[in-house]
Amino acid sequence: MRPRKTRWVKCAPGERCFRPQCRPLHELEGVCLSLDEFEAVRLAWSEGLLQEEAAKKMRISRPTFSRMITSAQKKIADALVNIKAIRIEGGCCKIVRGGQK
Q1: Is residue 55 domain-resident?
Q2: Are strands 17-18 and 85-88 parallel, antiparallel or unpaired?
């Protein structure tokens, strides 16, 4: 199998876990969103970029970006529908600071 290509991420999330307040933490299941999936969601949904533009910012191919955003959507939907916590951790990423491209 090929080694994973490094994904370029502009910012790390301030909080690493989001959870529903309706249940105690010990009763909650969770889903894990990787840092690169988080960045894909930020670029596509928050910044409103097209997949091609977002993929260029992350220095990956458009098909790879598409797979990441689809995976993130499924995990977020699972967490919302089934009342689960969302943890953000891991991924093959390099955080870009300030004006770096």
Answers
A1: yes
A2: antiparallel
